Amino acid sequence: MEVGIIGGGKWGQALHFAFSKNHKSRLYSRTPKHIEGFASLEEVLACPLLVFALPAQVVGEWLEANFVDKGQSILVAAKGIDVRKHIFLNEMFAKHLPENRLAFLSGPSFAAEVMRALPTALVISSHNTSLAQTYEKLFPSFIKTYTNDDVVGAEVSGAYKNVIAIASGICDGLELGNNARASLIARGLVEMARFGVHFGAKESSFLGLSGAGDLFLTASSTLSRNYRVGLGLAHLRPLEQILKELGEVAEGVYTAKAIVSMGTKEGIYTPIAKEVAHMLEGKPPLESLRDLLSQNG
Ligand SMILES: NC(=O)C1=CN([C@@H]2O[C@H](COP(=O)(O)OP(=O)(O)OC[C@H]3O[C@@H](n4cnc5c(N)ncnc54)[C@H](O)[C@@H]3O)[C@@H](O)[C@H]2O)C=CC1
Ligand SMILES: O=C(CO)COP(=O)(O)O
């Protein structure tokens, strides 16, 4: 099969590496890369199976400016919620192609480990079962895949866990201990499930790889960019400087704000996301964590 990847960041390159094991994979990014299979945008858009691996915040403008509908399907590999429009990515993509040509990728998967061909498990979610199964065939044997039809569950899990990972990094950066971190992660899981179920997600998705799996991974490892943002905030470093040094996307920074807006509008209880948004705007981390973890919080 032939697959075209849009986005040459860490995740786009890792997926390209994985797909290239058994298939013809082409990768396009705005900055040319010296890797086998690098292709022009035109060549990539001509592939029947596309994978979108750019940050969530650029989805709208990228599709408007570049997407040409030739009947291709898209597997969305970004994990975030648009901070300006406050809508899920499936709604943004649905403006450009029908939902039966859309699928979403989620699950615990650091690009750096996929690049080393380490065992990984991923979920492909689509309202079109046969499309999910087609994308499944692209993955090599070191990646175990599962399919389901819970698109909103996959999206909310992938986006929300980044916000909880920032909180967890802050908790560890402040050296508040393992008890505190475990309680944040567990409460974070409940919080993200409540948010997702409100928008139609299945609760069971949050107990599996997309939810608990990716949350546990991201909220407990310095390999996570979002967790590292949290560590930086705990050490009272300015956000701008943290992001500049990171040099890669940390989706939770934007998704926290989107969740708070959507939660406020819909009357959903999102205490951890709210405190993360406050800390990103300058609230002292110790004060925020006390508000979250103390008896009166
Ligand atoms: N790195 C990882 O381990 C994983 C990342 N993801 C998700 O995949 C998405 C992409 O992440 P990474 O590749 O890791 O980020 P990255 O920061 O490594 O790369 C992002 C890429 O997007 C490009 N880009 C940024 N704005 C652009 C624009 N306006 N137009 C065109 N290109 C633009 C950058 O030049 C860069 O090549 C994120 O939503 C992330 O949450 C999902 C699973 C794992
Ligand atoms: O989504 C990821 C792993 O599943 C990557 O997390 P970070 O973006 O925090 O590095």
From TrEMBL:
Residues 32-131 form the Glycerol-3-phosphate dehydrogenase NAD-dependent N-terminal domain. It catalyses: sn-glycerol 3-phosphate + NAD(+) = dihydroxyacetone phosphate + NADH + H(+); sn-glycerol 3-phosphate + NADP(+) = dihydroxyacetone phosphate + NADPH + H(+). Gene3D superfamilies: N-(1-d-carboxylethyl)-l-norvaline Dehydrogenase, domain 2 (1.10.1040.10), NAD(P)-binding Rossmann-like Domain (3.40.50.720). Sn-glycerol 3-phosphate binds at K79, G107, S109, K161, D214, S224, R225, N226. It is an enzyme of class 1 (oxidoreductase). It is found in: Cytoplasm. Pfam families: NAD_Gly3P_dh_C, NAD_Gly3P_dh_N. One of its GO terms (molecular function) is glycerol-3-phosphate dehydrogenase [NAD(P)+] activity. The active site is at K161. InterPro entries: 6-PGluconate_DH-like_C_sf, 6PGD_dom2, G3P_DH_NAD-dep, G3P_DH_NAD-dep_C, G3P_DH_NAD-dep_N, NAD(P)-bd_dom_sf. Residues 150-287 form the Glycerol-3-phosphate dehydrogenase NAD-dependent C-terminal domain. NADPH binds at W11, R30, K79, A111, R225, V249, E251. Its EC number is 1.1.1.94. Pathway: Membrane lipid metabolism; glycerophospholipid metabolism. Keywords: Cytoplasm, Lipid biosynthesis, Lipid metabolism, NAD, NADP, Nucleotide-binding, Oxidoreductase, Phospholipid biosynthesis, Phospholipid metabolism. Coiled coil: none annotated. Belongs to the NAD-dependent glycerol-3-phosphate dehydrogenase family. PANTHER family: GLYCEROL-3-PHOSPHATE DEHYDROGENASE, GLYCEROL-3-PHOSPHATE DEHYDROGENASE [NAD(+)] 2, CHLOROPLASTIC. Catalyzes the reduction of the glycolytic intermediate dihydroxyacetone phosphate (DHAP) to sn-glycerol 3-phosphate (G3P), the key precursor for phospholipid synthesis. HAMAP family: NAD_Glyc3P_dehydrog (MF_00394). This is Glycerol-3-phosphate dehydrogenase [NAD(P)+]. It comes from Sulfurospirillum tamanense.
